[in-house]
Write a structure and sequence with these properties.
Blueprint: H1 10-21, H2 24-31, H3 35-49, E1 54-57, E2 60-63, H4 65-86, E3 97-102, H5 105-122, E4 126-131, H6 135-144, E5 149-152, E6 161-169, E7 171-175, H7 188-193, E8 195-199, H8 204-216, E9 222-227, H9 233-237, E10 243-247, E11 260-262, E12 271-278, H10 285-297
Parallel strand pairs: 3-4, 3-5, 8-9, 8-10
Antiparallel strand pairs: 1-2, 5-12, 6-12, 7-10, 7-11
GO molecular function, one term: DNA-binding transcription factor activity
Protein name: LysR family transcriptional regulator
Pfam family, one: HTH_1
């Protein structure tokens, strides 16, 4: 593997497309190749790297752990090559630029503190303009060029928008520990009997996953309180019998101190938290740098 002359480097471009699209036909369309040609290239990549890389799942491919390890360094390496060939250069330390980002308070709480600490050191001339709106409005903003990058949950996107998964998120149930007897676990019966808090933000896909899982059991929950922001929800729960079923990372930090956290008493599908952009930015070295910085800020720890 150290002998690059023995490796068809075009395979890396194909792997990058497959990891980004996670769908054979979309990757083929992006590469202007036939599906059989891309399938053959994937077989060669599997042999070359000694790993399945992509496994068929519902709606497309699911990357293996090895593929996830490769995704970011591969994308960064290819972007560096494109910059060399195209003359596009982004010097973060001297750059003067405003990037327009869209994210909810959930995404902002998770990403912005670490991202801004890095920017103040590595890219002090970079400014961020943060906004948020409904999911359709955010998607329209990315399409129209009014938003450079958007973070969130995007079940469906127009073809010209590109998505990258920052992390897979799971759910937990948060409640006042005094509302359960000592040693008592959260049962499905208790969960259904209690009133619930719903965060009715534009990150609606999260709440939809919970209700879809209950619907499969033929059950529904009573929503007693709807709040517009993730950050206020933990305070609403304290001192009550309310239950908040929430993305696990939303309970990081001081806001969730004092709350008891339990696994949901039924299976809830995880969801992908993503960053999206328009394909017109493929050659934008500044966008590529910021995407990598956001991905680093999203890493655990």
């Amino acid at each position: 593997m150290n002998n690059l002359r023995a490796v068809d480097l075009n395979l890396l471009v194909i792997l990058d497309a497959l990891l980004s699209e996670r769908h054979l036909s979309r990757a083929a369309e992006r590469l202007h190749m036939s599906q059989p040609a891309v399938s053959h290239a994937l077989a060669r990549l599997r042999h070359l790297l000694g790993d399945p890389l992509l496994l068929r799942g519902k709606g497309g491919f699911q990357p293996t752990a090895r593929a996830l390890e490769l995704a970011r360094p591969l994308a960064e390496a290819l972007q560096s090559v494109r910059s060399v060939l195209g003359g596009a250069v982004f010097e973060a330390v001297t750059a003067q630029r405003v990037f327009r980002l869209a994210m909810s308070d959930y995404g902002a709480a998770l990403i912005l503190p670490r991202l801004l600490r890095r920017l103040r050191v590595d890219a002090p001339g970079i400014d961020l303009a943060i906004s948020y709106a409904s999911r359709p409005a955010v998607i329209a903003g990315v399409q129209d060029g009014e938003i450079d990058l958007a973070l969130g949950v995007f079940p469906q996107l127009p073809e010209q928008l590109h998505r990258e998964t920052l992390f897979e998120e799971t759910f937990v149930c948060a409640l006042d520990p005094a509302s359960l007897a000592a040693g008592e676990m959260l049962s499905l019966e208790t969960y259904l009997a209690r009133p619930h808090v719903l965060v009715a933000s534009s990150e609606g896909g999260m709440a939809a996953e919970v209700d879809a899982a209950l619907a499969q059991l033929g059950q529904t929950r009573r929503i007693a309180v709807r709040v517009p922001y993730w950050t206020v929800a933990p305070d609403v729960v304290m001192g009550t019998d309310l239950i908040l079923t929430v993305a696990r990372r939303a309970l990081q930090g001081s806001a969730a101190q004092g709350l008891a956290q339990y696994a949901a008493p039924f299976t809830i599908a995880p969801f992908a938290f993503e960053v999206i952009r328009h394909r017109r930015t493929d050659g934008d070295a500044g966008i590529a740098w910021l995407r990598a910085a956001i991905a680093q800020a999203a890493e655990p720890g």
